Batch of 2 targets.
Target 1
Amino acid sequence: MFDPTAASDGSNASSSQELRALLDAAVDAVVVIDARGRVETFNRAAEQMFGFTASEVHGQNVCVLMPEPVRSAHDDYLRRYLATGQAKIIGIGREIQARRRDGSVFPASLAVGQVAGADPPRFVGFICDISARVAAERAAAQAQDRLTHVARLSTMGEMAAGIAHEINQPLAAITTYAQACQRLLDRDKPLDVAEIRESVVQISRQALRAGEVIRRLRTFVANREVRRQPLGCNRLLEDLVTLARADLRAHDVDLRLDVQPHLPDVMADAVQLQQVLINLLRNAVDSTLQHGVVPREIVLRAVSVPDGVEISVRDHGPGVAPEALSRLFTPFFTTKPQGTGLGLAISRTIVQAHGGRLAYREHPGGGACFHFTLPAMGMDEP
Amino acid sequence: MKDQPATVFIVADDEAVRGSLRLLMKALGLPAQAFASGQQFLTGFDPRRGGCLVLDIRMPGMSGLEL
């Protein structure tokens, strides 16, 4: 086999020059190494990508192009392959971290082939700098997170009336208990200590109750990093219900819980899942109000299924109109006069990121039913 | 019957609100009776007893104003 970097003469001269031209015209970096990992060929794209000249790396171990920990391990990889013939990267290709001459690291895709017939073996690697793609993906993910957060704020704005009521109730109780205590203390009659004590206990309890609503509210509207962690489904739903009940009560709609005890843990971002459920619940409320549906009740159901936990939200309304079905999850599609058309689209994206799929079905007993399944912990993500 | 003092009828779905109002009435020396919903009040109160109503406006089912 030819060595394109070696000086050639005679009939090989023109084909060698042709190959040189091919290598240098290539957009990808092309690096050929010998069986011990020493660089034999380093094309122009490689020079530009890594900041080394071909003469600098020629004969050097290819691991100079890699950051740690691969840098130290590469010789072993190579030896293992030569000994076992088991390819981990050859013919497969993968995304890797590569290292420039100045020590900076960038993401790259790498495809490796073995030079046919060469003995001792030689390997050729094609490296493509994918920093731009990775950066674009990250930017897209960040934009999605911002959008999700804005949607959450907007939802919370719509829920403000219900939430305010939920905080006002304990505040009203606190005020009244305090006034009652004042009266009791000002009276000329002997004090009933038990009565005063009970009032003070209540005052403290109601203050905690109001604080708890605020805590959940703040968690919900905070702009924080998306964090998926092991999460008990029952706990998640309990937390949700405080906010959701407040909203539903404001519209005089009942929330019925059909939640199986001891559901398995799921890997999830609690706030984002609450956002999905609140979206679904609010849609159900809107449909119930819009169509004057009886019973004014929404069912939140969570059951264990073979592939995880199925969560569904069902109302007793007329369901989704057939002509709206196909566009249900399309951004900006809405059937509500004040709707943004983002709720279901964002919800579906969130559920997808959790390894599930948000879908719609008409409930056999009538009404719309939105449902999704979250993979239980310890199960492989699809 | 006429001698019975006026009763304060409290209708509120929130237990804490209800409890606090009942205690306040007691501190003021007024007889009070509390109900958790408009429906409960309508079926449970004694119409021969005079008095006044203290209503929670925002309640599930029958609102205070409906009552």
Note: The mean pLDDT of chain A is 86.
Target 2
Amino acid sequence: MASWPVLSIITFLPLLGAALIMALPQSEAGVRNMRWTALWTSLITFAISLFILVYFDPKNPGFQLIERAEWIPGTGILYQKGVDGISLWFVLVSTLLTPICVVAVWESIKTRVREFLVALLVLETMMVGMFTALDLILLYVFFEGVLIPMFLIIGVWGGQRRVYAAFKFFLYTLLGSVLMLLAILAMYLKTGTTDLVVMLHSPFDRELQMWLWLAYFASFAVKMPMWPVHTWLPDAHVEAPTAGSVMLAAVLLKMGGYGFIRFSLQMLPQASEYFAPFMFALSIVAIIYTSLVALAQTDMKKLIAYSSIAHMGLVTLGIFTFNQRGIDGAIYQMLSHAIVSGALFLCVGVVYDRLHTREIARYGGMARNMPRYALVFAIFMLASVGLPGTSGFIGEFLALVGAFEVNRWAALLATTGIILSAAYMLVLFRRLFFGDITKDDVRAMPDLSWRELSFFAPLLALTLWMGVYPSTFKDLIDPAVAQIVEHQQQATGHAPRTAAVAPVAVEASR
Amino acid sequence: MTALPEFGIALPEIIFAVLAMVLLMVGTFGRERSTGLVSWLSVASCIVVGFLVVATDKERATGFEGLFIVDRFAAFMKVLVLIGSGLSIIISLGYLDREKLRRPEFPVLILLATLGMLLMISANDLISLYVGLELQSLALYVLAAFHRDVLRSTEAGLKYFVLGALASGILLYGATLVYGFTGTTSFDKLAALHPADGVHAVGLLIGMALVATGLIFKVSAVPFHMWTPDVYEGAPTPVTAMFAIAPKVAAMALLVRLMMSAFGPLAHQWQIVILVISVMSMALGGYAAIVQRNIKRLMAYSSIANVGYILLGLAAASERGVQSVLIYLTIYLFMTGGAFAVILAMRRGGQMVEQLSDLAGLSQSRPMLALAMTIFMFSLGGIPPLAGFIGKIYVFRAAIDAGNLAATATIANAFYVAAGLGAAISVVSMFYYLWIIKIIYMDPPAAPLDRPAGRALTGAVLVTALFTLLFTFAPLVGPVVSWADAAAQSLVR
């Protein structure tokens, strides 16, 4: 156990950096200092966040590094933080991607640099705060607080239709999350506490569970986003600046999946079981439909945005299998997607910075003049498709195996999504990189600079590491998931839905 | 009966009245030169009396034959009102200078209105209620028309007066009905009356409804809100700021005390009515604000929506409900006061500007002012981690709690539905708050606003913005919540 509050420090350190940036003078040197301050703040935060791994006990499936203090007196609302094997990875993804985003926008954001960096650092605080919160109200504060910096990032530094996209993003997600707030308050009034750890073991009666489940569903389905409430995502992604897209895809979407696991699965097991077929249906529609939509896109960012929705469909499918493999796969898929789609948006950013267009047709033949870029793009593209040896494979495979154990047809249909994803990704790659260069401005584009390589390198390494040696990550995830599965089975009073393979799953988790 | 009533119980009010008179004299003899002095002394009076209120804080005591009551609830509300009035005077200083309205009557009128509010808060009888209310209203009518050479201002004053007098009349008529059917005007006796004496007479209910109508007019809730946008738009901006905060707190305090103590046993009769008014106010405030182009009108609708949320807490008719009202009012005071301070800083070429489009590009010309306005707007929309969020949680908690404890399933469902609607409508309101932020941050800059805004005004913006930003942190939210809890307990026993 740590004797110092690691989680609080990594939550609030970025705010300190933001305050520093606010104090810097507005001059050329000042702007440079702002960038360096942001970079160092986020790097130090990342370095400190690695201490979580040092202190974390992989064998303990519960919450660790708990910090607890009274927050609002007389209400039972706490300031409580902690991580388990699931949330800790999301924390690390958030702290890793923030410095990468700072570097990625080093040259592309030229106006209102101060505000941008402050928004980015505030965003980091909100994300880390959300994944480490162990109190429902505290969690909600961060969950919704994310909207403020993200709204500004999209609305101020975005593309042509940025205002529309920012409003749509904000109001869509807000409508979902206010219903979640009511659900939280209802649970609070039932139990008299907002302590998430207590809540995980408080059984609610079945009828209440149904209502609560629907309220949480409204929130997380929008955040995820699931078909048919996904329409804000392509707009937000397309209009957001590169760093905004990266954060949106890599971390904000994961809040939905994390929420489904924490709230729906862990707190409302009976309702989750009842609604599982519904979730399966929506997931499969999402996988197939959005993959087909992705095939038809002419805008790079939109294509990747739709592919994100499809991948998130696989995640919800995995979560609602209620078995070890499915949930493991869903979590792994979320982590992999965070790295890979984040990287893909960075890749788009690279050419967008050079040519200021996202039209696929405006490019072509870039493998000739930008070989390094082509290689980087290819690896992330293949990871997104789920090629064995990359991070994408592990998650997809586990989620599909989990689904197969529960419902073969669902697994079969979901697998077609994988094929489609290969189709649209390979088509994208061919149109961008192969063939002859027909346009002079494309020919004139320089290959990746050292700055760009510097932020792709860690993501590349992680993608391959996660694909080749998943145990590093799975060893921490498995015990937490095993506990969730066990809890689910006790609560619903069912024998494991995967009786034949359950012993294997438990053994794998040891 | 003693020869002299217990003056000690009303010591803060008496001192406040004396101070107001003294300042009136200073103003009368010092003429226009003394405006600054009188203003600052008025602020000082508010502060001194505020401390006096806290120092003489009692669990519960009545005086003047039961007309006047002092309890934790009154102390809490009085402090809020005094903060609101002090803030209004501070932010009006620069305005009076530039509009050539430097008259010492202005701060003195605010003090007299504030005195009326203090009496309203401590009213424990329909008679003292009316006296306090009228003292407040008369001073406010004059203030609304203070810019007497401007047509809009005189129109606002007249409108406010005519409609306000109508509301006072309705209230008085209700009071006579209550007296006629029960034989008493004392809140305590009214509370003790039912239900054993079989006083569920229709006359009493009508009387109660009419008294409540008068007060609902004063807090500008739907359907008695029509005067609000016009008066807010027409009145001089510092007066509008004042209208939006202090009288609202006082009238709400009066409404809460009346409903919870005098008509407390009739809660099942009025709960649903207040609930319906609450939802209608939220909805109207939310939707009607969207089409506004004048920021003062927009703030008027925003205040109607906020009153809707506060009434949701009152509708719960419980200790938690009252606590939520107190917390929401505290937060509302700071964020609305702050927003008006920013509006007062909107001057271009020496003229006040008040169209939304005048805020365009504020983020580039005045980044700190823009940031403060953004904080207020997100807070008014109830987005965490800003203060407004805490208000929303408490109100919704009270509503859901009332639903859980309701006697019948119909009432329970009404509360659940109201909470759901309130949450959904808060998204609608968020649209226009976002729209202001969009104008500030995303529109091409209009001509820059005048600088400097004045030190007092800047200070007010800074303090309110910091309060709104940092309220969620434990050292700030803790004491407020605890105190509100104690205040609510002293009212609901």
Note: The mean pLDDT of chain B is 87.
